[in-house]
Design brief:
The chain has 105 residues and is mostly beta strands. The chain contains no helices and ten strands. A five-stranded antiparallel sheet has the order 5-9-6-7-8, with no helix packed on it. It has a three-stranded mixed sheet with strand order 3-10-4, with no helix packed on it. The two termini are 15 Å apart.
């Protein structure tokens, strides 16, 4: 479990990291989902935030999402032709704990 701003998030760690030590959490942007409703799955992390930027990259729509506490996450969503979410829209993000990687430092 890693404290990221106001959030306690679960992820896999590479090696041993002492409690209270500085660490960084890495998540591939395509592994983060914009969710319509909260998940009851205890293996999933969930945070709420606001879209700050939307970029069109062909078959991908890239969102920059600011979560509570000021941290930013990048989310890559498949461009299925639907209207993208607008900047300042409130969203819920979710990903599996196994998709996050914690590294010391």
């Amino acid at each position: 479990t890693l404290r990221v701003g106001l959030h306690a998030l679960r992820a896999v760690s590479e090696g041993s990291i002492a409690a209270g030590a500085k660490a960084a959490l890495f998540i591939r942007p395509e592994r983060i989902a914009i969710e319509a409703s909260p998940s009851a799955d205890p293996a999933r992390n969930a945070v709420e935030g606001r879209i700050r930027r939307v970029s069109f990259l062909g078959n991908i729509v890239r969102y920059s999402v600011e979560i509570e506490g000021g941290e930013r996450l990048t989310v890559d969503a498949q461009n299925a032709g639907a209207r993208p979410l607008a900047p300042d829209a409130a969203v819920r993000l979710g990903w599996l704990a196994a998709d996050g990687l914690v590294l010391a430092g």
